[in-house]
Amino acid sequence: MMSNPKSKTQNQILRIEESPPALAADAVELFAQLTQQAASEGTLFRVALSGGSTPRLMYGLMASETFRDEIPWDNIRFFFGDERWVPHNHRDSNYKMAKDELFSKLNLDPAHIFPIPTEGLTPEEAAAQYEATLRKEFQVREGEIPEFGLLFLGMGEDGHTASLFPHSPALKERKHLAAANYVEKLSAHRITLTAPVLTAAKRVLFLVTGEDKAAALKEVFQGKHKPEEYPSRLLREARGEVIWFVDRAAASQLRET
Predict the structure, then answer these.
(1) What is the pLDDT of residue 8?
(2) What whole-number distance in Å separates Cα of residue 179 and Cα of residue 231?
């Protein structure tokens, strides 16, 4: 069962978990419930996945005997919140991790999976192509924003989420759905969904673990609104429900409310 929320303010729910494995298990339980609900209502469930160690745990659980038969896989369409600028067979690829830990184990239909393209294009062309994919699959026109049923997001120790890093160019993007983002401190290109897409989702599920995230989580959850400094703060103004699954180490600096 999920732990009781430590606090709830408007559409923001904070859940403190004992450990990353416990956090991953509760996240998968919620995912199963949401996908079952969508299937019972006859609506496609569109989810954007993220990279990282905790999602890796989560994908392994999704494909396990405990959950695999509880989730209506054919009714789900998989997208990605961001991607590193590497080939899809590269060890750092978010798509490769999801493919290895989830898609391949379940033999999911490739037509239901929409990775961010990274080969044979410039980063800008890749972002434009992914935006076109989103508009087609969500059937939204220019000026409209797709509404994901669920977005999985992580947070870095600098407060970044998806590939929206502090003071990076894509943070200011409000017209496009996807953007190429050069992250100077990493000397690397990323492709990321933009803030309007992240904040339009019906539900966002943050997975935040580790003591190295504690200072940033305190700023994001209880500090002033400074999204240029802490981009995850953008989700404090999301339209849908935002559930913060955090372990005790990441929550160690939060004030009691």
Answers:
(1) 54
(2) 15
**Contact indicator for 178, 163 with CB cutoff of 8 Å:** no
Give me the amino acid identity at 103: F
d(CA 143, CA 132): 13
Cα–Cα distance for residue pair 233/239, rounded to 1 Å = 13
CA 174 to chain centre: 18
List, in order of start, the domains of the chain with CATH numbers.
5-247 (3.40.50.1360)
What average pLDDT does the segment 111-130 reach? Answer: 97
28 vs 117: CA distance, rounded Å? 27
Integer Cα distance of 159 and 212 in angstroms: 11
Contact, 252 vs 21, CB < 8 A?
Answer: no
pLDDT at 1: 27
**CA–CA dist 257, 250 (Å, integer):** 16
What is the tens place of the pLDDT at every residue in 130-149? 999 999 999 999 889 999 99
